[in-house]
């Protein structure tokens, strides 16, 4: 019911696009709505909870962040649009669906871009990553901080040891041209699909596989219907906490700084939670009978040549800067 109400509201906003949504208040208290498509207990949601508690504490209860997990406000695409319009105040999604709004983000999602996790965080917390957060204001969003989502790998109803095993397979991807081209480069057919629809699609044979990180694979119970997890680790796609510029522009400078600092603290908390949950997730699915595969990565890397030509040519200097960071 809540989701349907927000979709109807969104449709009205698109008709009356000049509408500016004022800050939601209860007396003198500002109420901010935060969205996440994962459930309570998932690291990103727990990170948002840390952010909410810090904002509440640092403002003496004057600002309250209400978290709506489990995609209750809509799919990632729907909530991003609502955040642009000021219906949702704070959002946490992967950067993949944001690439359609801001092309430069494709660079951060390129396959095998980072040497390891430390390299990724040096990029994101450095000048390059922080500049990109600022630049999102061009599309009606204010980047606050990044979150960890580990490395994404393929899971399927049959083993994947090499790109040859993927030929002809139908693989679910996020609504991202980059991810669709990655799958095509490996010889499979990409099918964009909402996150919450994947289990049934795997169960009924509409798709042969998908790609995600270990905690998501466990949380969604996809391991029940796709019993082979191939750790090709094709991409480390960061998550992002961002805010509606409509909301941001109505806040005082002091409140903006508080929210930014709380988001950065949420990032630190989420990274620690992520590492623990990733390790535990792999053990749990393996104990449940999933076959964990460690494929030779070089054939997958070699298949990405055309992907880099298409998405990297425009930002070749930026890619070189990223690769030169220690």
From TrEMBL:
InterPro entries in the record: DctP_fam, TRAP_DctP, TRAP_DctP_sf
GO CC, alphabetical: outer membrane-bounded periplasmic space
GO process terms (BP): transmembrane transport
UniProt keywords, alphabetically: Receptor, Signal
GO molecular function: carbohydrate binding
NCBIfam families: dctP, TRAP_S1
Alphabetical list of PANTHER family matching this protein: DICARBOXYLATE-BINDING PERIPLASMIC PROTEIN, PTHR33376
Protein name: Tripartite ATP-independent transporter DctP family solute receptor
Taxonomic source organism: Petrotoga sibirica
């Amino acid at each position: 019911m809540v989701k349907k109400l927000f979709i109807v509201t969104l449709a009205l906003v698109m008709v009356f696009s000049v509408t500016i949504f004022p800050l939601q208040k209860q007396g003198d208290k500002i109420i901010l709505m935060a969205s996440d498509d994962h459930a309570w207990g998932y690291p990103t949601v727990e990170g948002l909870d840390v952010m909410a508690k810090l904002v509440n504490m640092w403002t003496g209860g004057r600002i309250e962040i209400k978290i709506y997990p489990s995609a209750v406000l809509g799919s990632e695409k729907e909530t991003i649009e609502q955040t642009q319009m000021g219906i949702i105040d704070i959002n946490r999604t992967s950067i993949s669906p944001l690439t359609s709004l801001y092309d430069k983000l494709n660079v951060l999602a390129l396959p095998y871009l980072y040497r390891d996790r430390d390299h990724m965080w040096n990029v994101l917390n450095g000048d390059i990553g922080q500049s990109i957060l600022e630049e999102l204001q061009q599309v009606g969003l204010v980047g606050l901080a990044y979150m960890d989502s580990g490395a994404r790998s393929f899971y399927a109803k049959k083993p994947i040891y090499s790109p040859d095993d993927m030929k002809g397979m139908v693989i679910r991807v996020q609504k991202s041209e980059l991810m669709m081209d990655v799958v095509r480069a490996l010889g499979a057919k990409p099918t964009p699909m909402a996150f919450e629809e994947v289990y049934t699609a795997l169960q009924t044979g509409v798709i042969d596989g998908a790609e995600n990180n270990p905690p998501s694979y466990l949380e969604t119970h996809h391991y029940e219907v796709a019993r082979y997890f191939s750790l090709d680790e094709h991409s480390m796609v960061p998550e992002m906490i961002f805010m509606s510029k409509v909301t941001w522009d109505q806040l005082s400078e002091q409140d903006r700084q508080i929210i930014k600092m709380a988001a950065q603290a949420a990032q630190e908390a989420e990274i620690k939670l992520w590492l623990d949950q990733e390790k535990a997730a792999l053990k749990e699915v393996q104990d449940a009978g999933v076959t964990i595969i460690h494929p030779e990565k070089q054939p997958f890397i070699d298949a990405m040549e055309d992907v880099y030509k298409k998405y990297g040519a425009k930002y070749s200097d930026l890619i070189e800067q990223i690769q030169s960071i220690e």
